[in-house]
Structure formats: C-alpha cells, structure tokens
Amino acid sequence: MKKFTIIIALIIAVAFVGSAMAVSSGQKAEFKGGAMGKVTFDGKIHADKGLKCNDCHTNIFQMKHGTAKIKMADHNAGKLCFSCHDGKKAFTSKENCAKCHKKAAAGY
Ligand code: HEC
Ligand code: HEC
Ligand code: HEC
Question: CA 68, CA 76: separation in Å to the nearest integer?
Fold first, then answer.
C-alpha cells in the first residue's frame, strides 16, 4: 500500500514537471524598471491574447531573460515591448505607465 502511494506520487510529480515545461508561456520575466517601478512581463497574459512564441521569439526577444536592454527611448521608438504597445496592437506606452510599472506600496 505504502509503495503504491509512493509510485502514484512519483507519477504526479513527473506529470507536473512535464506540463510546467510545456507551458513556458506561464513564465514571468521581471524588469527593475528604474524610478518608475518594476515591470512584470506575464507570459500567460500574452498567450491568452493569442500570441504565439514566434510572435516574440526570436525576432524581438531572445529566450533568455536579461538579454533585452529596454531604455526610455525605446518606449517611443516602436521597438521591443513597444512594437506592440503602440496603441494599435496593444495599449500605448505613451500613456498607461502604471499598467506596466508597479511602484512598491508606500512603506516598502
Ligand atoms: C509577447 C511576447 C512573448 C511571447 C508571445 C513569448 N515570449 Fe518568451 N519571453 C518574452 C520576453 C519579453 C522575455 C524576457 C526577455 C529578456 O529579458 O530579454 C522572454 C523570455 C523567455 C524565455 C527565457 C526565460 C528566462 O528566464 O531566461 C523563454 C524560455 C521563453 N521566453 C519561452 C517562450 C515560449 C516557449 C513561448 C511560447 C509558448 C514564449 N516565450 C512566448 C516575450 C514573449
Ligand atoms: C507581440 C506583441 C506584444 C509584445 C512584444 C508585448 N506585448 Fe504586452 N500585450 C500585448 C497584447 C496584445 C496585450 C493585450 C491587449 C491590451 O491589453 O492592450 C498585452 C498586454 C500587456 C499587459 C496587460 C496585462 C493585463 O494585466 O491585462 C502588460 C502589463 C504588458 N502587456 C506588458 C508587456 C511588456 C512589459 C512587454 C515587453 C517585455 C510586452 N508587454 C510585450 C502584446 C504584446
Ligand atoms: C508596455 C509596458 C510599459 C509601459 C506602458 C511603460 N513602460 Fe517604461 N519600461 C518598460 C520596461 C519593460 C522597461 C525596462 C525595465 C528594466 O529593464 O529594468 C521600462 C523602463 C523604463 C524606464 C527606465 C529606462 C532606463 O533607461 O533605464 C523609465 C524611466 C520608464 N520606463 C518610464 C516610463 C514612462 C514615463 C511610461 C509612461 C509614459 C512608461 N515607462 C510606460 C515597460 C513599459
């Protein structure tokens, strides 16, 4: 009985690891974001909007967090995040700063 439980647990564990790797769209990438506050890129939100891996990889972003160096000038230059966040494909980065930049709550 005990052995049986362990085997079941192993099967479940393997199944979970497998699905975690298949759904890499569930990943998040955090950016420090400077004085405006940190930015979290949520892979799941983007996948849910129907975006496929090759909409971003690797013509816009490499599959390695920290590769893209995203500067203020890029916000208005239609590059990187802002190739979509231009007010056409997705909300514009000329406004909506707080949709991406989250300041830590006061006191932190
Ligand atoms: C809307 C754009 C977008 C889509 C769609 C997207 N990604 Fe990404 N992905 C990113 C960004 C942004 C990063 C972080 C890049 C950086 O920091 O330079 C990233 C990073 C990654 C990384 C590296 C993670 C790390 O910690 O180093 C992997 C792996 C990855 N993506 C896989 C995928 C796969 C697989 C899919 C499809 C299921 C996918 N991505 C879809 C934007 C996207
Ligand atoms: C290939 C196009 C594309 C790229 C590249 C892209 N996004 Fe998006 N993003 C979208 C779309 C489409 C939506 C959903 C439509 C909308 O909210 O305007 C979205 C939604 C969002 C949201 C709103 C999430 C919510 O809570 O509803 C945030 C935040 C966001 N993106 C951040 C980023 C950041 C940060 C980057 C760069 C690291 C990025 N996006 C790159 C297309 C993109
Ligand atoms: C679509 C998401 C998004 C929106 C909207 C957005 N930003 Fe950003 N911003 C980013 C990302 C991603 C970075 C890169 C952060 C990092 O690498 O640490 C960034 C970085 C910055 C930086 C630091 C630049 C540097 O050179 O280090 C400033 C300042 C900034 N944003 C200001 C703004 C302002 C002001 C607005 C609104 C007018 C805005 N952002 C709207 C995603 C966004």
Answer: 16
pLDDT tens string 22-58 = 345 678 999 999 999 999 999 999 999 999 999 999 9
d(CA 31, CA 65): 9
Which pLDDT score, from 0 to 100, does residue 68 have? 96
Q: Whose CA is nearest to atom 39 of ligand 1?
A: 53
Instruction: Give the pLDDT confidence of 2-16 residue by residue, as tens digits.
Output: 665 555 555 555 444
Give φ, ψ of 62 to 5 degrees.
Answer: -80, 160
- Which residue has the CA at smallest separation from atom 4 of ligand 3? 93
Q: Tell whether ligand 2 has an atom less than 6 A from the beta carbon of residue 75.
A: no
Question: What span, in angstroms and rounded, lies between the C-alpha atoms of 18 and 9?
Answer: 14
Query: Could you give the angle at the alpha carbon of 94 between the alpha carbons of 90 and 100, nearest 5°?
Result: 65
Residue 36 Cα to ligand 2 midpoint, Å, equals 17
From the alpha carbon of 69, which atom of ligand 3 is closest?
17
